[in-house]
Each structure stands twice: as structure tokens, then as C-alpha cells.
Structures
1.
Amino acid sequence: MRDASGNFSLLHRTCSLVVLLCFLHISVTFIYYVRNSDSRQTFVQNQQTPQVHRKLTEQRVTIEETRPPSLSNGTETERKLETCPDNPPQLVGPLRVEFSDPVTLDLVREQNPALQPGGRFKPKDCIAQQKVAMIIPFRNRDEHLKFWLYYMHPILQRQQLDYGVYVIIQDGDRAFNRAKLLNIGYAEALKEYDYQCFVFSDVDLIPMDDRNIYKCFNQPRHLSVSMDKFGFRLPYTQYFGGVSSLSKEQYLKINGFPNNYWGWGGEDDDIFNRFDRIAHTRQTMGRDGINSLSYKVVKVEKDQLFTKITVDVGKP
Ligand code: BGC
């Protein structure tokens, strides 16, 4: 015979153990969830809301700054601020970049409340290391532009740049002249603000890691270091197309870009060769560049997200 009460107490003990284990499991899961939801929130904030991280102002050098009137809030004339750090604290590293869901300009405006008219921004709690003009040569690529603005504004704000976005639109439907539009962007941006650095970007390129800072270095820099359309490589070693940055000094040293490349291709190779030894460019660059630039401004539009300048670049 078997003792039923003995069986019952074994069952009771087993059940209690199971309940205890369940309780432990739920507690551990809960603690893990709460801790992770904290860091998830931070990540989402970093992706979409470019607010300045206050804690990290501590190691910066204090200097005086007078904000230019165009960006001042009226009450503040002079503030003691520190220079932004070399490694901006809000950077998140690799980014998910996709173009499947359409975005609207209103959404981008809503997500970037800190922008000033003309797509201008400067960090609130520190002084940006560089004043950078983003120059985009453009015609009929509105969908691309929306994505560019959608991704780039939060990135550039996390990078703590003092920047403005200039979309330079070629008027009419003659052959496109990308390099001349870049020269015009340089000239027009400088009429507005004392930019020291120029990032020249195609409208359809977005960085996949925000540590790729859109600023200038002691040499001209090719920022689009690899591209999905080239299998995450570059087509050839001297390739300088896509996105590049040049300081004002570097740009002037090579007399800007050539004005005479009409239609697709070649102008980026010419720009690269202005730093290099190749004969033809060396012969022409002295007389073809920013020093020979001529164009007419047709229209200027200021939006919260950009300054659009439509220009007549002349004929081939
Ligand atoms: C053109 C460049 C272009 C590159 C990659 C070259 O043949 O001259 O302008 O960027 O191909 O597509």
C-alpha cells in the first residue's frame, strides 16, 4: 500500500518550490526590464531629440562668447560657455538608415524644434568647435531631400556643430553643373555667416554612423568612406565624390571647384586632382574656380529646415 498523506506533502512541497521559482523568475525579469527600458529610452532620445547633455560640460575650457544677433534669443547677450568636446557625448554610433516609409517635412520640423530659420543650429550649452555650412547641389530630388533632412538634422545636432543647411538649386533644365553649384553654395553661405568649414554633400547620401563627424580636418576629407551602392567600398582609390569636407583655407588654396563640368561625372575627380599632381587640372585650376565664378540668384527661400537658393548657372 502507498501512504496518500506522504504523497500529498511531497506534492505540496513541490508546488511551493515551483511557485517560489516562478516568483524569482518574474522578479528577475522585472528588474531586467526596468533597467533596460531606461537605456532604451536614452537611445530613442539620442536618435530623435537632439538635446544637449548637461553632465558632460564639465571638462570643457571656459571662454567668452557673444552670440550673433541672428541666433540670439534677445534676452541673452553674453554667456560664459565652454568649447564642445572632441567626442560629442550624444553620439550613438551605428544608425539604422532606411528609406521605405515616407517622411514629411512637417514631421522633420516637429522633430527638430531647436532649428532656427534657414536650417541653422548651434549647441545651447557649449560653443561648437566649428561653424560648418552644409552645401547640397540640387534639382528635382525632393524625396531624397526629405530623407536627408530627416536623418541629418538630428545627427548634426548630436555632433554639436554650429551649422546651416544650404540647398543650391540649379534653375532651368540645362545640363546639371554639380561643381559650380558647390562653388555657389560656398559663396552664398559666406554672405550669411562666418563659416570656416564646408561640407559638400550629395542629397542622396546619409552616414550610417554618427561618429562620422561632418566637420573639417587638417586635410580635405572624403567623408563618404564607403557606400552601399558600391558594395560598401569605393570605386577607385582617388574617388572624391559623394560627401567631402574642406576648410575655407583648403578650399581657397585649390581655388574652389571647376565651373565647367556640365552633365554627369568628372568634376569630383577634378577636385581630387587639385590636391594631386595630375597635369590638366594643374594647368586650369588657377583660372577656373571660385575666382572666375559667375551666376545669378533667382530666388532665396528660408525654412526652418534649410535655406534654398535657386540660381541661374548659365549655359554649357
Ligand atoms: C566619374 C565620377 C563618378 C565616379 C563614380 C567616374 O567615372 O567621373 O564623377 O563619381 O565615376 O560613379
2.
Amino acid sequence: MPGPPSRSGSSTARTASGALLLTGHGASRGNALGRARVRLPHALEVAEQRITPAQVPGELQRLHEAVEAARAEMHDLRQRLHGALNQEAGEFLDLHALLLDDPELLFGLDELIRSGPYSAGYALRVQRDRLAKVFDGMDDAYLKSRMDDLDHVIGRIHAFLHKRPPDVKGLAGEILVCDNIAPSELAQLQAHGVVGIVTAAGSALSHSAILARSLHLPLIVNVPNALQKIADGDVLGIDGSTGQITVNPLPLDLRDYRARLREQAREQRELGRLRSKPSRTRDNVTIALLANAESREDVTEAHALGAHGLGLYRTEFLFLQRDELPDEQEQFETYRDAALGMSGRPVTIRTLDLGADKADRTGLTLSNEENPALGLRGIRLSLARPKVADTQLRAILRASAYGKLRILLPMVSTREEIRAVRRRLAKQAELLRAEGHEVAEHIPFGAMIEVPAAAIALESFIDLVDFLSVGTNDLVQYLLAADRNNEAVGELYSPLHPAVLRLLAHILRVGREHDVPVAVCGEIAGDPRMTRLLLALGLTEFSLHPGTLLEVRRAVRDSDLGELQAAAPKLLAARDRRSIERWIESNP
Ligand code: PEP
Ligand code: MG
């Protein structure tokens, strides 16, 4: 199941047949069997790698291109620095740029490649070790510590040396094992045929995990010993539901693996029968199941599964993995296609939620924030970049002529933010109409509730919105002061904290009192283990990834709303997580 995983911690064990079994957190379900491709973070080639004299010119060129790419990267980063850390971070980058230009470093490298003759990677290693000795011999602690900078610079050259296209191409049918993965890498990896990913760090609630689920790419995170225990070329059997990785499976393991695949296929067939069934409880209450979407494929899947609409279209994914911002026309076509793809069902376009772990490459997000999750993200970023915001609003307004679009603002914390966007929207609608575009008469306008202040003071701005959507992924992290991406506080990050449930119940109650519909679009809405709890709290609108829609529909159809709501007071009186878990267990 792809929702928030059990956090039982990671351990090393053996399968019944004796193969090594590693356990992490299943972040995107699905099974995969493939060869491991281990990507070490900035690890330099250790083994001596000699080349033939004929290969020397090619290897020199490879090195020079990598140095050039590292230089361009630093220049690019330097250009984007602004804000408080500009000076400090800038100084480091300047120093790194100086090191890159240091003839001692480069000349030595060329010489090693020629005289070895060595591969560029190994020459880099030898040169690094030589310089390390020099730094080690220095008395001055400050100068000694400069070796870290040199390591960073060498690491970047090395990364570029290994970023060559054949490296990516060779990935077809392989399982990537790496330290961590950025959302921006995932689609490209899948396009090159990667069948699964295992990361040593990371969290099942990160945006990388959300995107992996959207791509149906099995992902297991937080396997601390993955890089030590898995070698390049090992055969891996991974199960993205349980978080288990079998290293070099033996015949018995392969039999188990095939049996699991058959069981999953049977389960999928059974769920498939619910495609055309209503999402109605046993006592005949219809529950709206809308879909979260990040891509065109999600829209198609949502439609096919009979989703009531799109409850959350994450537009920021259009801005990632590219160097230029998407223009108005490209955005318009994307939103229009989402509207058309849902054939008249509501489609909720969330304005840009860049920032924190969704950093783009276009320079829009700040790269130097000390606390990016508390920084310029979501609606704050849009309001700080009014041109970008207006372009997006225009694209949404133009697309509104093609379906039932709704607008949703992320990370709202003040009344003024909503008013500011409403003003911009009205202005752009007026301009577009004057330019001859058709714009819908009324576009429902909503706010995400993911900042505790917005939840607590909901009554102070609810008059400004037509609907609300609770982003529990962020609400939990901000309410409990536990980073959603940091496994070190994974035990604390739990939607089953009594404070979370009470706040959810409060939001739902205020929504009801003001006749403003409230949905939940965080990952808990897509976790069938949480369905009854959410129904008990009074939720009647879920927005979830299409991948789990049928499982949640099954849970809804197996529930009796009246019974669950009668059991809600006990749930809300719970004093700890264990009591809430017991409530869930006793209301299966
Ligand atoms: C959330 O925070 O719950 C949410 C749906 O938004 P995102 O996961 O994109 O931050
Ligand atoms: Mg959020």
C-alpha cells in the first residue's frame, strides 16, 4: 500500500532460503525484479583504471568537458544567489570557482591521464589523494579544512564525468540504488527504463515519493545500509508495499516472488470490478472520491476509475525538470487538457506550490533559505513573483472555458493572501475578456489548509472561499514540528497524533457551519487504513492519487457511516497515538 508506511525502522535479515533481506519504507508500491545499479554520492573511482594510449585524447576531452560543466554549474548557482545568505554562500562558490581554475589541480590531472595512462575518474582520485596529503601536513586548522572545499569541487567534476548519456541509457530494466533522489530526476529515470528505486535516505511523504507513486515506479526509501549491502550488478527483488528488498534471490525466493505477483494480479482483478461501482457507504451515503494528479496520465487514470473530478492538480510539476519557465500558452494547454480529460467533472488547479523540497531549476525558488519549508513557498512565492503568478492565473482563466475549473491556493496563512490573489484574478479576467478570450463566469476559489494558523483561524477568512482542501502532508509537519522528509523524526510525524485529529474535526465542523465543502487531499486520504477514521471525523470528500482510488472505494463501500460517526467521540477523546490505532483496529 503506497500511503504513509509503517515506521518499524530498518533492519537486516535473511529470507527463509538464506538470501539477504533488507527492509526500508515502502514509498511507492509495486514489485520489480532487476539488476542493481549503485550510484554512490560523489564517490570517486577507487580501483586503478588504466587506459590504452589511444584512449588518452578522449579521456582528456571527457575530463575537460566535466570541468567545464562544473564551472558552468557554479556560475549558474552564483547568479541565482540572492537574499541573506548571498554573501556567505557566494564566498564559498567563488572559492570553488577559483579551485576549478587552479592550474595545479588541472595540470596534475592532465599529466596523470597521459602518464598513467589512467581513466579521468581514477586520475581525479589520485590527484585528490595527493592534495589531501599536502593539506594534512598543514598546521593551520582553517587551511586544513579547505580540503572539504576541494573535495566538493572534485566531487562535482566526478559527478559530471559520470553523468554522460550512456550511464542513463544503460539503466533499462535496472533498479537504481542511491543515496537519495530528487523529484526532478524521477521521470527521466523512468523514461530510461529504470524499474525501481531504492534509496538509503528519504521519506515516504516526500514529493519524490508522491511523484514515484504517480509514475507507478516502485520506490523504497530509508534503507540506511543499502549502499553498503548492495553491489552493482546484484539481482534485486523489491516490494514497494512492504519495503522489502531481497538481494540475489535464490530459487525459493523467486517462487515466492512469482506467487506474490499472482496474488497482486488477483487482487487487482477483484478491485477492477469496483471501477463502475458507486462510492457509497453501506447506509447509502455517497462519498466524493476525487483524484490528485500531477500529469496527463493521472488525469486519464482518474477518468477511467470514475473519480468525481480532480481535487488537486499539482501544477508545480510542470515547472520542474526544465531550465525555462513554461509560458502562458503551454500552461493554458495543460490546464485545458486536464479540464477536457475529465469531461465536465470539476478540476481543481492548484496554483504553483514550488519551494521547500520542490525546488525548480529556473531560478524561481530561492536556493539559499535556511528553513525552506518555512520560507518562500506556495502562495508566498507566487505573490513575491507577480508576473509568474499572473501568467499562471491567465492560463487557468483561459482554460476555464473548457470545463469546470476551480482554483486552489497552497500554503495560505493569512486573509490578505487570499484577497491579493482574488484581486489579481479579477484583473486578469477583465484583461482577458477585453482581449476577446472566453472566461468562465464563476470559477470556485479555494484555499488549502496546511498551515496550522489557517486551520485555527479558519473562521476569520472562510467568507473569502468557496471550498477548502486540507493538505495533511504539510499540516502534520507544521503542527507537530516534524519535517515530512526527515526519517529521523519519522516516528513523530504521524497523522495519528490527537492534535491532528482534533484540528481536522475542527476544520470539518467550521466548514459545515459555514456551508463550505471541505476535502482532504494529503496522502492520508489515499490510505485505505485511514478511510474509516476520516469518515468518522465527518469527511465526505477525499482527494487521492488514482493508484489507490479503488481500494478507498472498497473501504467506503464496506463502511457504515452512522456507526462510525457514533464512535467518533471516543476517537477524539484519545490521548495518544496507540489509543487511536486501537480505535482503527476495532473499527476495521
Ligand atoms: C499536502 O501538503 O498535504 C498537500 C496535498 O500538498 P503537497 O503534498 O503537494 O505539499
Ligand atoms: Mg502541501
